[in-house]
Amino acid sequence: MCLTLRSFTALGNEMRTFETGLVQGWLASCDAIALRELRKPLLSERRKRSARVRIDLARHQMDGQPPEDGTTEKERERDRGRERERGAHRVKDALPADFEAPDVTSLILGSDLEVAVNLSADHMDRVNGLISEASMLSRLEFTITDTLSNVALQKIKFRHYADEINRLVGAMKAAVAGLAPAEKALVMPAVRQCAIMLRPGFGPLNWNSLSVPSYISDCGAAVGRLQQVTSQIVASARLLQKAARAIEAVKIVPSSTADLTGVSGGVPTIDELMTVLGVQRAAAVETALKQYASMVTSLKKIEETITGDASGKCALMSEYYAYWDRRVFKALTTMVLGGFSRLKKLLLGPTDRSEPLFRVSASLSVPDILQTPSLHHVQKVLAELQDDLVRCTIPFLRWEDGTCLQMEPQPISLSHSLANGDRRGDGNPEGSVVVKSSQVYLIGDSAGSIGVTDPDLAVFTYYSDMLGDSQVEGAKNGVTRIVSVGTTNIQRFFREWHQHERIWKVDRQGTLARFVAKSPSLSLYHETMAHYKHLYTKFSEAADGTTPDGTIPVVKEVDFVRINCKPLVSGIANQCELWVHSLGYVLTSSHRKTVLQLANTVDRYAMRLVQEPRDLAALKDILAAQADLRENGDFEQ
């Protein structure tokens, strides 16, 4: 028993000796470790391998072959450059206080695409481990060095520094995270200021520096400025995008015939329709122009936030102006394409229209059927309507290069010189254009439509770009094909009336003369007159709307047109009536002598038949007259 106790006591003493030696060795090195960690810069880069590198590593692991290296040559070269840069940063007196590290702005903007690099405060993991172990050893009644005790007492301060720096870095990253490439260029001054403020955190500042609180304060001010700029840019960009979408949504053509305000009394004529569409289109373009003007206001607000000036000529924003100029053109293109799309649906129908777009009337003007207005006029007006949809972009004046200010009207001579030396002389017709790349110069009537009445001035709009756009050209051709098919169907409908053309197209007098020359019988006269009288009744009832079977169309809808055939039907009925009257006149004229002779014969026989049979001779005369009447063929005709 005593032997066992002495063995355990000896073992305990040996363990205590080992433990004491281990702790003393640890304490001897922990001071150096703590001081080395506290002398590290406040900021460091935290790398994440790119997806391509991770895939490459995984492939090597699956093949059972260790990769030669986890990074590409480009990444290794970047690492060596940054190591040299960090080595230079450790030399306190080698760099000015406001030195901007070349990679700090890229770290803030996140422009490194190959390897994701994030700014982060060094959390001093090893120092925290030392502090935790020192606390445990202190509870075990081990003596802790003064250096380690001081570090442990400042643990909360170091944690506060790290949290504040990480918060600032996170705020910077969040401020620029949602910016488009064109918008990142606008925040470069604020980003550079943040980079200058952050730069000391990569060295010479470390965790022992007394100026860390002021460093955090200065960085906070720079980050606040960056957040202010980015928030204004984001808010203005949201307004700009909203205005662009509002322009895209503008309806320069109504969606259905029910939206044609100002049309009363049923289906309008084509001229009335064009008037109503013109009024609605002008109102829609005015709405789009207001949105266009609001975009200039938003751009100036961004400029004022960045530079303190709202001139609209900021050189830093030239690319941003160009970006929104292209966005405006895209919005206008969508607006025009939407107009063509809705016009196409209205022409195709019937789901997008409650009734035809316009009406035409057909009338008889012997020997032709007239359409009012003519199909040529209809095609011309619809072609003009398509051109008007593209002309909606004329009021949108282009911005001067590198600004968001509308281009002022220029003298025609200057516009010619701008148009790469266009030499057309002074003989420009009214409404002509001079094209230079993406600009258009409107002269005369077209310029007057947007308030420029001086014939010697030209204005610059989006019109030429719209004319040359392949999508707009394709949409225009599609509508033209629909109109062509519609007019062909209308012509086919009018050709169906040619089955009745003998009623009005033949020479009535000549036909009747040839008819009389054949000495027709009275029954043939009666049959011919009955035919034309039947046609007269049929067409007159159709014109009055009393035809039960509807075989004769008085109102016909062909594609997008309603054709009023009532004047035509009434004209045909009048022609039938003329045939009846002409036949009666010819019959009367050609048989007047025969009729008179028959009348005399009838009178003579009547006198013989009505006498009283007073004697046998009178009775024989009456009977003889009756016999003559039975045998006489003069009355068969």
From TrEMBL:
Annotated region described as Disordered, given as residue ranges: 55-92
Residue span(s) of domain Dynein heavy chain tail: 7-215
PROSITE patterns per UniProt: PROKAR_LIPOPROTEIN (PS51257)
One of the GO biological process terms: microtubule-based movement
Signal peptide (from-to): none
Top-level taxon of the source organism: Eukaryota
Positions with biased composition (Basic and acidic residues): 71-92
GO cellular component, one term: dynein complex
Pfam families: DHC_N1
InterPro entries: DHC, Dynein_heavy_tail
GO molecular function, one term: dynein light intermediate chain binding
PANTHER family documented for this protein: DYNEIN HEAVY CHAIN 6, AXONEMAL-LIKE-RELATED (PTHR22878)
Full protein name: Dynein heavy chain
Organism: Kipferlia bialata
